[in-house]
């Protein structure tokens, strides 16, 4: 709407962000960088100190979305940027999430509020929240600094749950109370989410466009009210369902018949084990691949009686994966 020149940078890649800043057009007055502090889908935390260094070096205007951090992270629950004062120019937050209400807020430099009230259509035509709601928010803000014990329990829950999943061979992402489990596929994500829900466990089955295409993530949002018994039950339940989805030995069969499937497992960090792939080039043989601690087995589909059909298929898949890697690296470098 503002006709800005929008340029994205790779997730949590501060080197890529710096290259973007260096390559900004000379006519750029002051770049605006926007980021989350706690990324909602994988639980990655913003490196606030690194971002502060870049801001000091390049003088950009920084807007940080603290929606998933306010109340849970940072000194007094004020968010991650509160740990490095003066880092963010604008902070966006929510009265939902940890505060349990609705609505959102903006922390702005002096003079900006009047600017938005006079020139922002979204602000001018919005409706103020009910007075009782505003009063409840103010009381909650008074309580935030007093909840260090609850924040410590939330942090301990996240550490415990992530450690148990790791011990059970289930990969995780993130470091905070958002625990993301990459499943390697949309259908598998949906299936696991439904099976967990039937057993009384709510986990968001995140699919495209919330996460990259043909990827899939089970997202667990922990609270300070969860007990270790609840988390232990959830971890064991997910491990049982994981074994059913991937096979009892932690392996599962996939058929590489479409480019989308290759891209899917490439996104999941798949690598073909060379020694076993070399002996699995005939039609109908299985190729073992590795994704983190998972061991995956891929069945090469039969293609009639051609003696080299499986070999050619494997070469084609390898070429596609190399081409995908090259394309992504080229896009990130631009």
Characterise this structure.
With 334 residues, this protein is an alpha/beta fold. The protein contains eleven helices and eleven strands. A four-stranded mixed beta sheet has the order 1-2-3-4, with no helix packed on it. Strand 10 and strand 11 form a beta hairpin. Helix 6 (148-167) packs parallel to helix 8. The two termini are 24 Å apart.
- Output the strand order for the largest sheet: 1-2-3-4
Which structural class best describes the helix and strand composition? alpha/beta
The mean pLDDT is 78
Task: Kindly report how far apart the N and C termini lie.
Answer: 24 Å
Strand content: 5-15%
Nearest-angstrom radius of gyration?
A: 24 Å
Topology, number of strands: 11
Low-confidence stretches: 248-317
Proportion of residues in helical segments: 40-55%
- Shape category: globular
